[in-house]
Design goal:
Shape of chain A: globular
Number of helices of chain A: 22
Largest interface: A-B, 63 and 44 residues
Radius of gyration of chain A: 24 Å
CATH class of the largest domain in chain A: Alpha Beta
Largest sheet of chain B: 5 strands, mixed
Number of domains of chain A: 4
Number of domains of chain B: 2
CATH superfamily of the largest domain in chain A: NADH-ubiquinone oxidoreductase 51kDa subunit
Strand content of chain B: 5-15%
Order of helices and strands of chain B: HHHHEHHEEEEH
Helix content of chain B: 40-55%
Radius of gyration of chain B: 18 Å
Oligomer: heterodimer
Number of helices of chain B: 7
Helix content of chain A: 40-55%
Strand order of the largest sheet of chain B: 2-3-1-4-5
Strand content of chain A: 5-15%
Number of strands of chain A: 15
CATH topology of the largest domain in chain B: Glutaredoxin
Shape of chain B: globular
Chain lengths: 513, 165
């Protein structure tokens, strides 16, 4: 029997993969062909979606951007016994999927399973080293697990890049009868989708990482706080969790051991600020998502006042790799104090947008030009925003900066969650600066004045600038306002909104005067 | 809008299904939204009493989150992503077009109560932007004419449903 793979994740479906799958199913049935359709996750090469693959001699071959009208011809090519020669003639034939430069140049640790098979099949996950890390962790003492994580050099992938092992050590060392593992799956930054892809294409990796975290700090309750903008990930996670309960991977006896770990998904309700960890905890407790003052750290007083590990999806996902392959293996990737790999998400006005997992250290230019292939429109690149809506626009002279946490912070930028949004020369940077302030005004939790009032005043000042009222004076005022927000806001929302605003003014002054 | 007795029984059931959870308020409000498509004013004191909260606390939570609506809205939720990756691919024009063709602003429902239009800040489909969400379905690379097609499909599905019921 031949196997046909048709991706099933938010982006593939949005690009039409369900319609394509239905058409294939219909034709295979009508023609009584011996072909099995597998709905795999996505490989993250979203510009090729729907990327239909078939297997031959244990190799996978792809067809890109498959349209309904091409389904029949693709089936004919696949069924042709002399297919090797014939395939090259099909306009959408890509050759061997893993030989595509974009894919070949990546080093996939977190996403190596993504797109290979049915994301919800536990056997498939197990056959690709799934749950190996968990089995090892079950034989280890909590301190040994924490030491492994410390040694790996893993830093939080949500954006703040705090060393994960140190956070875990604090939770382990804090004596309490109840502790929690909370996964921050409120991936609100525009231009980021790595968490979503992992949850939709390899959900067991996250679940495994959370159980290991529970073992490491003696916590037996986990919550995944998922944004409501991700309905597909919600459904996938719920199915994955219920299958884990049925298989004894979650519940009272994890893999037959006297270890309990319970896990539940909780939906956010459309508030960007709930991606901030303390606001997320408030929201989980059923309150308004107001940011808490720190200290106390969540690791000491987190959810319901109990010691709590709050980690991003990718951080927890990386844990299963670290335990499976060893911390030294993981540490081998990367540069300086940025260890492991970085899942970059390339989007916006870009020819080849998608997920690119690479070791830290590659330059921004290589990503945008070599991987991305320039803009979608074909116009010149005007601006690149790195690190989400709170990230700065990066100066053209700095596009050769290597992607690592320290190098980016040295140029007053941040990698954050790894989102890169590209704009062509049709964009007006005044509009983008205004949007940054507007977004902050809409999404501010309102607890601290610089963010709550500052963002609204920022909008007003920008509107005066656009109506050419005392432009120079108002630009000075805007800068002072940005300084106030940056230095006196309670959290990154108010504290970093000035970054895109200031960098837009500084680098694209012509759009403001 | 007030609640009649039947609705109260349903509300009681929803609360009972969630009462044993830790931090049950958001799950309760999501369930109420799913059932009534808004949080009825009269439901707030009932939820508050059962969850041992004040009405002010519940109201505060309802007003904080974009997902919870105080008034009934159109049957289908149409969201246009306004985030940067979508802006880079023309979502600003799409936004203007959508408001004009549906004759509503963000936060409003069409005259026939079929469509509620609102902004959204990222659907995680940024590599294939601009993105639009209609109920739980996400659409990629939506042009103004593509948007009109999605809306006319939505209307015709509803028209058929209405005729067949």
């Amino acid at each position: 029997m031949r196997k046909l793979f048709i991706p099933n994740d938010t982006s593939a479906v949005a690009m039409g993969s369900n319609l394509v799958a239905n058409r294939f199913e219909e034709l295979i049935k009508n023609k009584s062909l011996d072909i099995q359709i597998i709905r795999n996750g996505s490989r993250g090469m979203f510009w090729l979606e729907p990327l239909v693959e078939f297997e031959s001699d244990f190799k996978r071959f792809g067809f890109q951007s498959v349209d309904l009208s091409e389904v029949e011809s693709i089936l004919e090519f696949i069924c042709d016994d002399s297919f090797d020669a014939a395939l090259n003639k099909h306009p959408k034939f890509l050759g061997e999927t893993e030989s595509i430069e974009y894919f070949k140049k990546q080093q996939r640790l977190s996403f190596f399973r993504s797109g290979l098979g049915d994301p919800l099949c536990i056997d498939h996950y197990s056959s690709l080293e799934g749950f190996t890390g968990l089995k090892k962790a079950l034989e280890m003492q909590p301190q040994q697990i924490v030491d492994e994580v410390k040694n790996s050099g893993l830093r939080g992938r949500g954006g703040a890049a705090f060393p994960t092992g140190i956070k875990w050590q604090t939770v382990l060392d804090t004596a309490h009868s109840k502790k929690y593992i909370v996964c921050n799956a409120d991936e609100g930054d525009s231009g980021t989708f790595a968490d979503r892809l992992l949850m939709e294409s390899d959900p067991y990796q996250l679940i495994e990482g959370m159980i290991i975290a529970g073992l490491a700090v003696n916590a037996n309750q986990g919550y995944i706080y998922l944004r409501s903008e991700y309905p597909f990930a919600h459904a996938t996670l719920n199915t994955a969790i219920s299958r884990c309960y049925a298989e004894g991977i979650l519940g009272q006896n994890v893999l037959g051991k006297k270890i309990c770990f319970e896990l539940e998904v909780r939906l956010g309700a459309g508030a960007y600020i709930c991606g901030e960890e303390t606001s997320l905890l408030e929201s989980l407790e059923g309150k308004r998502g107001l940011v808490r003052s720190k200290p106390p750290l969540p690791a000491i007083e987190g959810l319901f006042g109990c010691p709590t590990v709050v980690n991003n999806v990718l951080t927890l996902g990386a844990i299963s790799t670290i335990l499976c392959k060893g911390s030294d293996y993981y540490k081998n990737y990367g540069t300086g104090r940025s260890r492991g790999t970085l899942p970059v998400q390339l989007s916006g006005n870009i020819k080849r947008g998608g997920l690119i997992e690479i070791p830290f250290g590659i330059s921004l230019r290589e990503i945008v030009e070599d991987f991305g292939g320039g803009t979608f429109s074909g116009n010149p690149v005007k601006a690149i925003q790195v690190g989400g809506p709170l990230g700065a626009f990066v100066d053209r002279d700095k596009w050769d900066t290597p992607m690592d946490y320290e190098a980016f912070s040295a140029i007053n930028s941040m990698i954050g969650h790894g989102g890169i949004v590209v704009f062509d020369d049709q964009i007006n940077m005044f509009d983008q600066a205004r949007f940054a302030m507007e977004f902050c005004a809409i999404e501010s939790c309102g607890k601290c004045t610089p963010c709550r009032i500052g963002s609204t005043r920022g909008l007003e000042v920008l509107d005066k600038i656009s109506s050419k009222k005392d432009v120079e004076d108002n630009l000075i005022l805007l800068e002072e306002l940005c300084d106030t927000m940056e230095h006196s806001s309670l959290c990154a929302m108010g504290g970093m909104t000035p970054f895109p605003v200031k960098s837009a003014v500084e680098l694209y002054k012509e759009d403001f005067t | 809008m007030g609640l009649n007795l039947d609705y109260k029984a349903e509300l009681d059931n929803i609360i009972r299904d969630h009462i044993d959870m830790e931090g049950p308020l958001l799950p309760v409000l999501h369930a109420v939204m799913a059932r009534f498509s808004h949080i009825p004013k009269d439901a707030i004191p009932i939820i508050a009493r059962k969850l041992n909260l004040s009405s002010a606390e519940v109201s505060g939570v309802v007003s904080f989150y974009h997902d919870f609506k105080k008034e009934k809205v159109g049957r289908h939720k149409v969201q246009i992503c306004r985030s940067e990756a979508c802006q880079a691919m023309g979502s600003r024009e799409l936004e203007v077009h959508a408001k004009k063709s549906l004759k509503v602003d963000f936060g409003e429902s069409t005259n026939d109560d079929l469509i509620f239009l609102e902004p959204v800040y990222c659907l995680g489909n940024c590599a294939c932007s601009p993105s639009v969400r209609i109920d739980d379905e996400i659409h990629a690379r939506v042009t103004p004419s593509g948007f009109d097609k999605l809306i006319s499909d939505l209307r015709s599905v509803n028209h058929h449903k209405a005729r067949n019921s």
